[in-house]
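Intended use. Records like the one below are meant for learning the mapping from a protein sequence to its folded structure. Do not use them to infer anything beyond what is encoded.
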Amino acid sequence: MLSSEQRRVAAIKTARIISNAFHLYPRQRVAIYSPLPDELDTAPLLELLNQHRCRVYLPRLVDTRAKRMRFFPISPSMKPNRLGILEPVGAASIHARWLDLVFVPIVGFDLTGMRLGMGAGYYDRALAYRRWRQTWRGPKLIGIAYTFQRIDRIEAAAHDVRLDAIATDEGVLQCPTG
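Structure written out for the chain above:
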């Protein structure tokens, strides 16, 4: 278990690594997530994206029965959903295909770009179109994790969407799809 100070330092390091590894620019459409207590904090990344004047989006569950989510502009008004995750209130949503970068939380990952999340499949459903496209694949899908969350091998399911890269507190790992 990491201390709160270790978590804070890892989040800052990861944001710096992302700053050096990915070209961030004004009006770029970037999705991040509201972290749960065990996930890497995105506050330093949000600060970085704001410095670059990116358009920042957060996922919001729109149909919990069908396990669907959409991305909404980040707003000062946030409320927790039924899982306790903060979501933006109001505003029109954007489909994932129109985002440039999507940073996703990770419970575990392997070097092939497979990730374990919390198990509900919201990201896999929102990004399912990536499995069917041959040429245009956007957005770039980047997992955010602590280095120790690496697993030797994760068995892929038919519905899984692979990551293009994984940003950790020690560096960026490029995946075969990226």
